[in-house]
Amino acid sequence: MRTIGGWKSERPVRLPPHAPGLRIGLFGGSFDPPHEGHLLASRLALTRLRLDRLWWLVTPGNPLKDTHALTPLAQRLAVARRLARDPRIVVTDLETQLRSRYTVDLLLYLRRHCPGVRFVWIMGTDNLLQFHRWRRWTEIMRQVPIVVIDRPGTTLRAATAKAVLRRQHARLPERLASQLAQTRPPAFVILHGPRSTQSSSALRARRLAADETARSSPPA
Question: Structural domains in the chain?
Fold first, then answer.
């Protein structure tokens, strides 16, 4: 067993392909389930930030949410891989391999083991609203530049998010988004583009409602 950045791993960590100089987006989430909105956001980031690759980091569970009803990780990974039809997108369970659910641990590991790679963290405006609650969020901002993708229902509130107000000096104008990966952190940009009204929480609620209806229906 070996120690990795403060936690222990029994096996070597399997990193997706990477190389110094590549621009790689990191898109974390439960992906329960993954949907077209994830693809839209990913393609927007790939295009506007001129990324070479994008990793979908399927998390073992969000520390800020109730995870008791979370779909098993293996199933979420399989569905995500079927949906991610772009060859530039790689689906990985990196956080599970590192035995950590915290973004700051993941970033410290990547900075240490992937020298020269230009990582960019990707999140939606819905997550931006609670970003100040993430463990060591200011350290996250010092580790990598961040792109925030506009999401339906949170556009206006994003400008007043606590993290934005406290780090306003680090915000790049959207027209400079292509320079974000090369910008020394802290730096972030808010991107606007095609949006999907789909959300994982709404899809889960629909699935649970359908399951409940099926259980309560009398047999034919």
Answer: 2-197 (3.40.50.620)
